[in-house]
Give the backbone structure.
Amino acid sequence: MVTRRLAWLMRRGGQQVLALTVLVALGVGHYVLSRLPVPVMVENAGPFEAGATSEFVIDQTLERPGLLLVFEGEAGDAVDLRFDRARLQESTVRLLERLGVTLPAGDHPVSLLTGRAEKAKTFLRVSVVPIPGQASRVTLKTPREAGDSGLALVLRADGARIAMSALSAGDPSPDAPPPQRMLRLDGQQLPLLSGAVPLSMLAAAGSEIRLRITPAVGGWENVQRLALAPADQRDAALSAFGMGVRAGRESQFSDYACAAGSRLPLAHPGRLADGRCAAGKARLRLVSLGFRPGLVSAQASGLAWARKGGAVHTLDLVAWLKENPILATLIGALDAAVLAWCKQVFFGGGGGGGGWRLGGGGDGAGHRTPSPPARGRRIRNPVVKMAEKHRP
């Protein structure tokens, strides 16, 4: 009797451990499913915005130079352009040498200043020039000082070089003087150049370019001057495998989108905070890029795993189940079956003897096990008891 009782307890304990394990696994499965980092259409995730103390980052793999930004100045806008390390491009070098200007070779600090001219306009074109075999990371930020109505923009490209061309158009009237520009190269002040002379400069990889534009009339917000390349000139420079916002080079990304080639969950969501994104074939597309003093705002399109506001975009389980009624039914049936089985194991059911009862319980095979007799209780044979009842 004792042996059978111990065997029953061991079998019952094993069933309960198994039921508890299945129940915990079911709960963990639901939690993991609701936390799956799944891709989203990045245009539905909201814009990327980098304030005065943060920067906007574009990760790309380019096969050829691509136009990224254009600046079309208003009449009288003053432009101050400074490179940490840059060189004049070959076309500009040949042009200046024909004008009798001697130029140093290599990368040097370069500055280009365009003074205020009442009717002169300055035009800039910013392109990304890839370095073969390397992925590029272009960074843009707009620091701002209190009361400053102009735009300050800092650009840097790691794994690529930024090319910038400048041209000024003056007053078309015959006797109007042409706009003048001041070019300083490696500390050498070059002769004043007419704004009609096109200048093209190529920044060294990893060096900064500081652009400052002071509007002639009103604030910067009145006229959109600096923007993405026109729609008919957009090319590979506006595609990216990743983009995001961070406080600085040593900081994690608060916002980051990594182009997704499929709708499968992301295996390592922690990489989004570090801006680590595999450069596959999938691409995001820059749709708009707006600049205001102290703010860069970008809109993009495409399917991406996204991190916004420090949180990774995860599966909306309720919405997903509504969109997939067959899977919702299967998951519901599985949940119901597991819960019913666990209830049977822990609390027992009808006549099957599946409950946790030390007296009169089942032996696990559908047979009833008699309860042990109470101490001091006399067990009488029912036949003897009936005979005594009818004794004369």
